[in-house]
Amino acid sequence: MKTFCGRANPTTGAMEWLEEDEDYDYHQEIARSRYADMLHDKDRNTKYYQGIRAAVSRVKERGEKAIVLDIGTGTGLLSMMAASAGADFCYAIEVFRPMANAAVKIVEKNGFCDKIKVINKHSMEVTVGPGGDMQCRANILVTELFDTELIGEGALPTYEHAHKYLVEEGCEAVPHRARVYVQLVESRRMWSWKKLFPVHVKAEDGEKIIVSPSEMENCPGVPSVCDIQLNQMPSSDFTVLSDVVTMFSVDFSKPVRSASTHYRVELEPVKSGKAQVVLSWWDIDMDPSGMINCTMAPYWVKPTSASQWRDHWMQCVYFLPREEPVLQGEKVSLTACRDAYSVWYKLQKARGKEENKADVRVESPVCRCQAHLLWNRPRLGELNDQNRTHQYIKALMTVLHTDSICLCISDGSLLPVLARYLGAKQFFKANHLEDKIKIIEARPELLTPSQLEDKKISVLLGEPFFTTSLLPWHNLYFWYARTAVATHLASNVTVLPQAASLHMMIVEFQDLWRIRSPCGTCEGFDVQIMDDMINNSLNFRESKEAEPHPLWEYPCKSLSDPQEVLTFDFRKTVPQQCLGTEGSVSLLRKGKSHGAVLWMEYHLTADISVSTGLMDISNEKGNCEWNPHCKQAVYFFSSVIDSETLSDLPSAVTYAINFDPKTGEIAMDFKL
Ligand code: SAH
């Protein structure tokens, strides 16, 4: 079946109807899923296996039959481990139909048909008893339902239900328990993801400061979890203010309650400073003794942690409602509140117990100022990047005159305010700061002369930035908008940026390659069916697509020089014909060519450019430094060439890259 889906094209801005196969969504889900990453997570897999073996042995030692309930079986992996460990029978529950189908095939291929029953249901729909899905309650409960926040995927309600209806009292659980850890830190970098810092503008008539309105200062922000690869955050970017403490723990072998609750700990700051964020991660003990432990602790807590890379479990950054000064040795109390699916934090001066009881209720953070809805965390970080702002100010100073009439096309941009402070006479579209700035709520093509007070625009500005952009080139929407407003522009209009260029580089990833790499066998089980399924989903559309990744979190080294592949001249309108290029890029270093990274650079003026991708290649090894606020496009090659194993470097990768102005899409092809 085909369905038509309406959407605004992120690049051209045009409304379009896409014919989508009904399977498109689930292919996307599988292609972008973390199953491959989980199967590559050796540390996780071996510890689950050990925990499952130990649990089966304990049950057998009691002289009981080992009946396993595996909730969220995915590929069937944990059930196959249990069956191999001697379990008498496993009920493998999986709600996502394509996965349940895959599990059936994988279980069959590995010869466990008679020991494992795959049930394609949500665990809360499973029935027990004669004629039900399960003959009887299980005495071993195995799951892997955790996200970076531990509970975000609904582990608590699932466990609560399972203990009530699906497992025996006193059952064995793998994992046996989880603990959530916290550490209080001060970090200008992370705090810049929540707050707008004052922007200093040096104008001719003195320094001006743009400050955020008080509603934004006091806004708790948004409730969505901020999960990052904390191991990529250099220690110079934060100051530890407290030791690591256990915030709360969950015993999975006992009845679990999912109802909202709170936990409180007293912290004694090890340093004075400004408490801004709570860093958090968890660990799980696979057995009651705690001997089999799998931890997400970051590098400064557990120096070997970086050795097990994983993307399906990272670490969390929680923003305190307000920055709180703390003094070394002067106790503070940290409250974690949670509902069934998420956690949030509050810090208070430690006082007597009775006094504190009154105000334990902390509301879940809901943005009241609107700014956190307009500016997501990386975007706030970008707006707070002083070097970047400085580049824009420098560029604005060269193009603005006292009689400039400016039009800015970008989402939630500070450019109008900057330009206003730098002396532009009149401004259209921006914030509400001054009456000299007028916001026009209209699509560029619907702009009328009267909305511009019959004036011609002398300076057209954009960062460009649009909230609808996923891939770097989606911000070319600026070019389409510029084309749509062409009749309103003065003949000698200045366009800032005057051009953009697309850049490309071949890289070897330290770890990110795993998410697209086949697994083959996992702990001795053949999971190739899963590999094939992911591959099939990746190739569901005939042409392969680039995917967005924030590469500051995913180290890689360059194997080629960065290369400019396409330029887009914003001084002219969008052309009718395709912009295409073909060429080859030489490989300079030995290594595995995992893929190409692509990013945009904006040429604000002839000699001021900003990069949304590569910032620096740090040393002879080719380690790359990426813009920390932007996602870059990654195109994974279908086969990896390892030049380490070749005596001669393969000389080059050839490429063909084509921009189609009708669709706004960039198609690419690479040959190694
Ligand atoms: N157990 C596998 C896969 C874990 S991923 C492994 O460890 O490799 C978690 C899986 O659980 C997903 O496939 C998801 O669809 C499924 N799931 C989550 N909650 C569920 C529930 N309550 N009932 C059934 N399946 C669930």
UniProtKB/TrEMBL annotation:
Annotated GO MF terms: histone methyltransferase activity; protein-arginine omega-N monomethyltransferase activity
Known EC number: 2.1.1.321
Domain Protein arginine N-methyltransferase: 176-345, 499-657
Protein name in UniProt: Protein arginine N-methyltransferase 7
Pfam families attached to this UniProt entry: PrmA, PRMT_C
Primary location class: cytoplasm
Localization terms from the record: Cytoplasm; Nucleus
Statement: the UniProt record of this protein carries the keyword Methyltransferase: yes
Enzyme class: transferase
Highest taxon listed in the record's lineage: Eukaryota
InterPro entries linked to this entry: Arg_MeTrfase (IPR025799), MeTrfase_PRMT7 (IPR014644), PRMT_dom (IPR055135), SAM-dependent_MTases_sf (IPR029063)
Gene Ontology CC entries for this record: cytoplasm; nucleus
Protein keywords: Chromatin regulator, Cytoplasm, Differentiation, Methyltransferase, Nucleus, Repeat, S-adenosyl-L-methionine, Transcription, Transcription regulation, Transferase
Role noted for this protein: Arginine methyltransferase that can both catalyze the formation of omega-N monomethylarginine (MMA) and symmetrical dimethylarginine (sDMA), with a preference for the formation of MMA. Specifically mediates the symmetrical dimethylation of arginine residues in the small nuclear ribonucleoproteins Sm D1 (SNRPD1) and Sm D3 (SNRPD3); such methylation being required for the assembly and biogenesis of snRNP core particles. Specifically mediates the symmetric dimethylation of histone H4 'Arg-3' to form H4R3me2s.
